[in-house]
Amino acid sequence: MKRIIVFSVVVLSSFFVNAQGFSFGPKVGANISGISGLQFKNGYEFGYHLGGFAEIMISDKIGIQPEVLWSQTALTTGSSLSDLYSTSLSELTKIKLNYITIPILLNIRPAKFITFQVGPQFGILQDKKNSVSTNVQSAFKSGDFSMLAGVQLKVLSFRVYGRYGIGLTNINDLSNQEAWKSRTLQIGIGLGL
């Protein structure tokens, strides 16, 4: 573990030393999310995200942008979710999953005002909220791994962005019969300091 921390510090230090530009700041936005799978209604629900970012430009055109976000995924269950539990979940319609997400994005900047972004996102499930049953607590795995792609516009010190994330891991912790994979559209604004 100590070697990994030392290696990470050395790599990040080399980015800072060679960086062509550095900015950081807060960001906030909306999540329009859903989960693929028969137990969930097709469609998307609204949540939110907030946190911070750092933008490290290695050259005029290429950089990396690590972020740490508190991100909420809202879901609406389908009728077949009650088949998984011994208790009746007929009242259960909404579930909220709160994640700490860590995107690490490659920034490709063809012009000063536009940046294309692509990269992985690691999600750590913090809690699961619903109003009916504690059985849902064990339905989701504690982590999610996604790939993101999107675009960011720079207007003065503000960054207006939109990106799509698609889950690569199965977050269904109940059975291996059906894969649940996340999908999220994020729209938001950040302020570079």
How does this model look, in words?
The two termini are 32 Å apart. The radius of gyration is 19 Å and the shape is globular. It is built from 1 helix and 8 strands, in the order H-E-E-E-E-E-E-E-E. It has 193 residues and is mostly beta strands. Helix content is 9%, strand content 58%.
Strand and helix map with partners:
Elements: H1 2-18, E1 21-36, E2 45-57, E3 62-76, E4 94-111, E5 114-129, E6 143-155, E7 158-167, E8 181-191
Antiparallel strand pairs: 1-2, 1-8, 2-3, 3-4, 4-5, 5-6, 6-7, 7-8
Q: Biggest sheet, open or closed, and with what strands and sense? A: 8 strands, antiparallel, barrel
Distance between the termini: 32 Å
Number of strands: 8
C-alpha Rg (nearest Å): 19 Å
**Strand proportion:** over 45%
Question: What's the total helix number?
Answer: 1
Mean pLDDT: 79
Strand order of the largest sheet: 1-2-3-4-5-6-7-8
Order of helices and strands: HEEEEEEEE
Choose one word for the global shape.
globular
Low-confidence stretches: 81-92
Classify the secondary structure makeup into a structural class: mainly beta
Q: Residue share in helices?
A: under 10%
